[in-house]
Amino acid sequence: MKRRDFFRQTSLATGAFLIPSFLKPLEALAFEKLSGHKNLVVIQLSGGNDGLNTVVPYGLDEYYKGRKTIAISPNQVIKLNDVQGLNPNMEALRPLYDDGVMGILNSVGYPNPDRSHFRSMDIWQTASDSDQYLSTGWIGRYLDSNCQECSHPYAAIEVDDTLSLAMKGNKIKGIAVKDPQQLYRNTREPFFKEVINDSKEMLDEDNLGYLYKTMIETSSSAKYILERSKTYNNTSEYPNNAFAGQLKTVARFINSGLATRVYYVSLSGFDTHVNQVGQQGRLLKQYSESVQAFIKDLKSAGNFDDTLIMTFSEFGRRVQQNASDGTDHGTANNIFLFGGSLKQQGIINAAPDLRNLDNGDLKYNVDFRQVYATVLDKWLSVDNGNVLNKNFSSLGFI
Predict the structure, then answer these.
(1) Cβ neighbours of residue 203 under 8 Å, at least 6 residues apart?
(2) What local confidence, expressed as pLDDT, does residue 149 receive?
(3) CATH code of the domain containing 382
(4) Which of 103, 207, 333, 382 could form a disulfide with 203 if both were Cys (CB 3.0 to 4.6 A apart)?
(5) 194: pLDDT confidence band, cut at 50, 70 and 90?
(6) Sheet holding 78-79: strands in order across?
(7) What is the model's pLDDT at position 185?
(8) How far apart (Å, rounded) are the C-alpha atoms in residues 17 and 177?
(9) Which domain of life is it from (predicted)?
């Protein structure tokens, strides 16, 4: 492989694990277990998951009037209270709900919602207003906020090949690591250290120092992550799917004591315009069984109380089903929370109001940035206003 080709094909060229904080070599960092270390795990359900067929309002007649063929019948719903229950494919979450380590926030959204997958996901990932365009993500700005634990490159890890906008700050970016062994091998390629010799053809002088430092820290990060993660073997049995594999990797990172604050994973396929019931059901089963295995793994190592898991999707779906036995892009949706330190469990707020709609769409009651503000203020211990560009009131779930 030519050095120029190596440069273009590796994640250094695509930004998958660019690390713009230039600190001491990571080999010098001790492998000690951090005291009081809290972890945030963000799960993204891509495609706009239908919240009404996830947390089913089986006690509301309007739900069945609007969904003649795709509504979940009351005798199938995993009932949580007199109004709402879980999709029958989410049975794996019932013990977590009963144990008081799961919370559900209904009607989460933002003003003037956008129904484009790409734009709405940008809004959620950057924590912007709907008419505001930001080039940094809310987690990236958290990394920029001078938090004590964010001085190393791997303070935020996305288990993927590429880095989401949510993880990109002005000064610091998270790192994308799908396979620690592969990342390590990439940085040990013979051409890796020689790439700088050809970079003058592609970069101006101002960027040469940045590239060199980025490569050094990428190499150091790869070594640290691989060596540290080898100290723990997963104890839980995970389902055989890619999403479960991501959570298995996160569990290995957390339980090995990796000095990381935020982890980011995703499950795609929720754009269910046609024949929704079967497709969504399969995905919700994957999600639920994988989360159950993940939490069991964290509990076995004593790390669940120090971990907060948050699941979101870029928007919900319209109340009325479409003509293809599916649902079209909507607005407000639910958020799932899991953790051993939740102060509010179960269904935290009222069910969506299906009688008072906005042109057929659910109205939001909770701004998603209030959820972020709560996580930032009460879990990650930074002022939410410094990250979200203005202050949002916190909620009481932690």
Answers:
(1) 211
(2) 76
(3) 3.40.720
(4) 207
(5) low
(6) 55-56, 85-86, 78-79
(7) 85
(8) 7
(9) Bacteria
Q: Which tokens in the block code for residue 44?
A: 């993204």
User: Does residue 340 have a pLDDT over 90?
Assistant: yes
- Residue whose C-alpha is closest to residue 39's, from 305, 373, 262, 342: 262
* Within-domain flag for 163: yes
Half-sphere exposure in the Cβ direction for 295 (13 Å, CA): 22
How many domains, in total, are found in the chain? 1
Locate all alpha helices (DSSP H) within the chain, ordered by sequence: 3-9, 11-14, 61-66, 94-98, 117-126, 138-144, 180-187, 195-198, 205-229, 242-255, 276-300, 368-378, 384-388
The verdict on residue 165 lying in a domain is yes
Question: Phi, psi (5° rounding) for residue 15?
Answer: 85, 15
Q: Is residue 250 part of a domain?
A: yes
**Mean of pLDDT values over 104-124:** 98
The Cα-based distances of 274 to 70, 80, 298 in angstroms read: 11, 28, 37
Q: Are 397 and 103 in contact (CB under 8 A)?
A: yes
pLDDT digits (tens, 9 = 90+) for 61-101: 999 999 999 999 999 999 999 999 999 999 999 999 999 99
**Host domain of residue 285:** 23-182+233-388
- Mean pLDDT score of the chain, rounded to an integer? 88
What does pTM read for this prediction?
0.89
Gap between the Cα atoms of 325 and 323, Å rounded: 6
